[in-house]
Design a protein that fits this description.
Elements (H helix, E strand, L loop, with lengths): L40 E5 L8 E5 L5 H15 L3 E4 L2 E5 L3 H11 L5 E2 L1
Parallel strand pairs: 1-5
Antiparallel strand pairs: 1-2, 2-4, 3-4
Length: 114
């Protein structure tokens, strides 16, 4: 069965009070951290990947959509596959130096290989 989309996340379905107003959810005024101050770490990883090597880029502080677009650009620059989720970018293969080069070019000055 499909779950129906809820417009009201507070769980209130009906009220008999004529003066009732549902609680207003505060929208987060999210401002991402400046690119130059983000500490990006690049490392080689092969844990639970059947011995295959991946380059793991962690430390992004931004929205999921922005991280996905960054991951797409890095993958295109390195000419490889991978994924971007949960604030990290995975690249298939050893692309530590090349991804560091891309990050420095884009302004991530505090990025480093660990």
């Amino acid at each position: 069965m499909k779950k129906k989309n809820r417009n009201n996340a507070s769980g209130i379905v009906y009220s008999t009070n004529p003066d009732f107003t549902p609680p207003v959810e505060d929208e987060d005024d999210y401002t991402p951290q400046p690119i130059a101050t983000q500490e990006i770490r690049i490392r080689l990883d092969k844990k639970q990947r059947a011995g295959k090597v991946v380059t793991l880029i962690i430390g992004f502080v931004d929205t999921d959509e922005a991280i996905e677009s960054i991951g797409k650009e890095i993958k295109k620059f390195c000419g490889t596959g991978g994924s971007a989720k949960d604030g990290e970018v995975l690249l298939q293969g050893d692309f530590r130096e090349k991804s560091l080069q891309w990050l420095k070019k884009k302004g991530y000055t505090k990025s480093r290989i660990i």
